[in-house]
Amino acid sequence: MVDTVRSYIGSRLPWRSAVEGELYRLETVLIQILAVVSTAESLPATDNESHLALLRQMKDAVYEADDLLDEFGYLLLQSEVNSGSKVSLPSAFFFSPVGKSFRNKLKKVLSKLDKVKDCAQTFLDMVGATVTTVAGSSGVAMPPSFYRLYYLQVLDVSRSSLPILFPEGMDKLINLRVLDVPGAFTSQIARIGKLTSLQRLAVFRTSKKKGRKIVELQNMDELRGSLVITNLENVHSMQEAAEAKLNQKEYIKKLTLKWGYSEETRSNDDQILGGLQPHPNLEDLEIISFSGIRSPTWLETNCLSHLQSLTLSCCGSWISLPPLGQLPHLKFIEISQMYAVKKISFEFYANGSLKGFPLLEHLRFDRMPELVEWSQPEEYRAFPSLCDVQFKNCPKLTDEAFSSCLQTLIRLSSLEISCCHRLISLPSASVLHHLTTLKELDIILCENLASLGGIHALTSLEKLELMDCPKLLASMIIGEDNYDRGFLPASLASLEIIRCGLTDASLSSCLQNLTSLSTLEIACCQITTLPSKQVMRHLTALKQLRFVSCLALTSLGGLSNLSSLKVLDFFQCHRLLESANTDGENGQVILPSALESLVLDSCGITDNSLSICLQNLTSLSALRIHNCNGIVSLPPATVFRHLTMLAELEITYCQELTSVVGLTALTRQRFVTIRCCPKLADPSSISSQLRAYVE
User: Fold this and answer.
1) For the residues of 543-576, what is the DSSP string, one character each?
2) Would you say 238 and 268 are in contact if contact means Cβ atoms under 8 Å apart?
3) Which CATH number is associated with domain 582-693?
4) Which site in 32, 263, 298, 571 is 20 to 30 Å from 44, CA atoms measured?
């Protein structure tokens, strides 16, 4: 109902309408009354006549408002029908007899709602509500007497996307256990620390103002689940930080400590973070935008023995990382925007008896511009459980450091390298052969990477993505001695090569003996021809093949030998199929006969080459041709007659297409769609049998 009012004000009234002010008042009062009605309906059934009478008054007033809005909606609809379009009511309408009548009704409804609003406050005084939910997309103004719900235990306004306005005295709701409020609005509640029964508080925004300082958290020991503390730049000393007594909050499992921007010079942030020591039961910790120069002592010892996840972000002044390897249950680490860290030293692994990250599974480094070195301990194997590693935006990371990191990761299953511009080569086979469980490798935006090193030693690799590495694969021809083994691991099932230096020769080398490959995508590469039959015949599992923006590609090579291929897509390969092999005209096929789906988008295909492509595709069920301006006429009926399985045909934006006569041979014409082919617009050029399919 409130949303209806807002939509009328926002889009269906003229500027400065005569009733705009009244509708705004209607919206505000309805929000308050509906909040109380929602509270009342959440209470157990009661036979208290006073309670029921007040509730009836509130509902009656709301129903009257609803009827009035229905009437207004009808007036809008009538105006729309008369004008033929969805327009605002003219200003003069509200001075017509009908408009004046509506305005009078609106004033009466508002008067009644104002009186009922007082009843709503009385109702709150009389009941002991324990649960209140306020929903809607409009702003919520809680009734001034809301704080008198002394028995309230749950307040949920999380589904309101616009501001919540809390009245004074909310700190008197001493029995409140759950406060579901969008984080930005909790700062409205002064002296929130008096709500000592509160168990759920999503966000606490630290302020310098009395009643909103971090000390408010001191006695809130029932808090549990997740807590985000922001604006920690407003804390001035270690003593003030310690007054929050986070080390006594044993039920908090996830804690985020976040600083904001401050113009003041802050020399004691190290001490402040030291005073924010969490309880040992903490499982997930995030430290964000901390300006101190070192980590807190409680992170350098085994104080957080139950910690499982740690995120350190934008701690730009740290020059070294704390000894996290001693945390016995740590499974996830993300370290980002640590601008001064130059090396991962031995201290990172531990300084006590427990070391080496025994349970760590996920390790992510991002935006570490100075990271150059990586040291591995020799006396024990670090990261025995690590399965997922990401290096992103580490532009100075060297080949040696990267190799050092990988050499002990015997459980690694996923590796991503992105924007590491100093890397020239992947590690040698002697390093990579230890990675016997690696299944997924993504290499992105490594502009100087020229060699894949010993990648063939990754015998379990299933997915390989190479993207935006312009020097990679630029000059790589497989030698005769390696021909039977192949250059890439035979275990590969998915291969993507996008915007790399791929050549015809290196593509053949990459595909040699990939007998498990099922998906292949090549995009934005300067290849001119696909590999020969000798290479293609090894791809016995290939089912999906896609080429995108390969502008120099002209020849399909041995493509017809892909006996298992089901899906073939060509996008923006402008020179492809400009002319078909003349042998194709004598019966030689150029596409695999097992194809079920074919897409030709922005290719150089002509009438002749299209006929040759389709001549043997007896399994084809879907054909899509878009933006192919070399086609003037579709193939004759003799070609389409063989496409007995074709269930979907879509032809769009073929500017020169003038004839589709061959489609009369199709037995499933109801699945034909032809759109935006302007030269087919003349009905005389299309048989009546096909005219219905042209848009």
Assistant:
1) -EEEEES-TT--B-TTGGG-TT--EEEEES-TTT
2) yes
3) 3.80.10
4) 32
Give me the torsion for CA of 456, 458, 462, 465, rounded to 10°: -70
The residue written with tokens 């009342």 in the block is: 40
User: pLDDT over 90 for what percent of the chain?
Assistant: 54
Q: Are 646 and 624 in contact (CB under 8 A)?
A: no
Least confident of 89-98, 129-138, 566-575, 675-684: 129-138
Nearest Cα to Cα of residue 327 among 310, 346, 344, 345: 310
Structure tokens at 26: 């209607």
Please count the other Cβ atoms lying within 10 Å of the Cβ belonging to residue 497: 24
Angle at 214 between CA 212 and CA 218, to 5 degrees: 110
Helix 20-41 vs helix 97-126: angle between axes, to the nearest 10 degrees? Answer: 30
Residue 195: alpha-carbon gap to chain centroid: 36
Q: What are phi and psi of 178, to 5 degrees?
A: -125, 125
Residue 187 host element (H or E) = none
Question: Do the Cβ atoms of 93 and 6 come closer than 8 Å?
Answer: no
**Quick one: which of 486, 497, 420 has its CA closest to 459?**
486
Gap between the terminal Cα atoms of the chain = 42
- Specify whether the backbone of 453 is left (phi greater than 0), alpha (psi in -120 to 50) or beta: left
* Cα–Cα separations (whole angstroms), residue 47 to 50, 52, 53, 275: 9, 7, 10, 54
Percent helix, strand, coil in the chain, to 5, is 30, 20, 50
Tokens 């908090």 — which residue?
252
Q: Which of 622, 573, 568 is nearest to 590 (CA)?
A: 568
d(CA 393, CA 376): 21
- Mean pLDDT for the chain? 83
- Residue 6's pLDDT is what? 46
User: What are the φ/ψ torsions at residue 621 (nearest 5 degrees)?
Assistant: -110, -20
- Kindly tell me if the per-residue pLDDT of 502 is higher than 70: yes
pTM, two decimal places: 0.78
The residue with greater pLDDT, 164 or 596, is 596
Q: Are 619 and 642 in contact (CB under 8 A)?
A: no
Domain boundaries, the chain: 2-125, 128-200, 582-693
Angle at 107 between CA 106 and CA 108, to 5 degrees: 90
Query: What is the rounded CA–CA span in Å between residue 181 and residue 520?
Result: 48
Q: What is the pLDDT of residues 320-350, one digit of tens each?
A: 999 999 899 999 999 999 999 999 988 898 7
Percentage of the chain lying above the pLDDT 70 cut: 73
What is the residue whose two structure tokens read 């009926």?
Answer: 637
Q: What is the pLDDT at residue 52?
A: 66
What kind and span of H or E run contains 313? strand 309-313
DSSP state, 529?
A: B
